[in-house]
Amino acid sequence: MFERRLWRNLDYYFVGGVIALLAIGLVVLNSASANVMPDPYYFVKKQLIWILFGLVGLVAVLSIDYEQLKHYHLPLYVLNIIMLAAVALVGHEAKGAQRWINLGFFLLQPSEFAKTITVITLACFLDKRQGKLNCWQDLVVPFLYVAVPLVLILKQPDLGTALVLLAILFGMLYVSGANWKLLLMIFGGGLLLTGLALFAHFHFGLPLPLQDYQMRRLVVFLNPYNDGKGGTGEGYHVIQSQIAIGSGGWWGVGLHQGSQVQLNFLPEAHTDFIFSVVGEELGFVRTVGIIALYFLVLYRMIRIAGQAKDMFGALLVGGVASMFAFHILVNVGITTGIMPVTGIPLPLFSYGGSAMLANMLALGLVLNVNLRRQKILF
User: Domain-by-domain residue ranges, the chain?
Assistant: First the structure.
């Protein structure tokens, strides 16, 4: 049961940062989606509903001591695999990907929940291996543990979410005390191998387990006009996004006034490219302010992880922080044209029911560890 006296541990800066991001996100979403449907508030209303459902889920997570989650890590891991496997069998297909399960009233995207479930199950897995992650052999098992859901997500195909799982794994291995030099070598080696594999694919025809459009997107950001179609192919998203952000200037052109957004030049403006709307309509100064809010939330997560009463709590918060940090860094990098387009939404801003619910549940885990950072003395 939830003890009311635990509220004295509440991190108000963290909560305030999250509320501010949600509120600003709804305002920007309204401008980004006003001309998509006949009702200009259609996506805002739906997003608000998902936020309310997310708050219910967050309170439910808070009502259970996070230490109890250790008892359910195996059922949660199996449930995660079953949901991801079900997508391959009965999944709903759209825009060349099969990532959703049609529940009639809602298109459930299991890969969004897979991230939060992986944080919980991997925290329990690593908690039992404290001090036992010092050599190459020790690190093989955690990578295999995450490989199963990761491969299932890659088959959808959803490269962006698969990369998020890797970011969660690296972040949580670091928090667990794994040899950071080995982690750095694995990360650097992975980047080098990926670059060599792409070079071999485009110059020598080396087959890779990715769709053609995914591989083109991985390299086209280097010169989006060189996409074989004069910038109207795979480079189109990046070009339009850069134009939108560049035209915003210091203070932006104003909400509902951005030509790139309102004239539909910018694709996916209310989902993956909503940060471009921020840049065009709110301008550089306010964009920096929003990024500062994200930094505040991430900083408070790291602080909460550091104050956790045990390693399991620190791992939970470390996993959520890794997930949010990767989402924010890559989404901003994609929209500004310095990273490949991998289809990663901006947390608490981009429209999406599954993503909002999963993020709110993850934030509930952070608050759970925050509130229970001290043992109650009677």
Answer: 6-178+210-372
